[in-house]
Design a protein that fits this description.
about 60% helix, single chain, mainly alpha
């Protein structure tokens, strides 16, 4: 997993885009955002999600650099937010319990009322 985190850290993107993604990661909800971004029914494990997000982000960044008409800043930002959100989950030591839907560690350890 550390290699995945290194790959994310090695990304060189415009500062404004990264700052916006860092702000957006606070509202990241993997169960809601990942299926939309990855076009899947259910959110995959964090490592799998990061690999797919890195592939998508690389394509989007190529479009940005080529100044392609199909480049979307908002889509680029959404993917970067998801990458940062998944990196947080990996750093926190995400360990899904068998039979449970994948949720970030913070949600798994919330005290019950």
């Amino acid at each position: 997993m550390l290699d995945l985190l290194s790959m994310i850290s090695a990304l060189k993107r415009p500062g404004l885009l990264i700052r916006a993604a860092r702000l957006g990661v606070e509202d990241y909800d993997r169960a809601r955002h990942l299926p939309r971004l990855l076009r899947v029914a259910d959110a995959p494990r964090p490592g799998t999600a990061v690999m797919r997000l890195l592939e998508i982000e690389a394509e989007i960044d190529r479009s940005r650099k080529q100044k392609a008409a199909e480049y979307s800043v908002s889509r680029h930002l959404d993917v970067l937010i998801a990458l940062l959100g998944e990196a947080r989950i990996i750093r926190a030591g995400y360990q899904p319990r068998s039979g449970d839907a994948p949720t970030p560690p913070a949600e798994q350890t919330r005290p019950q009322p």
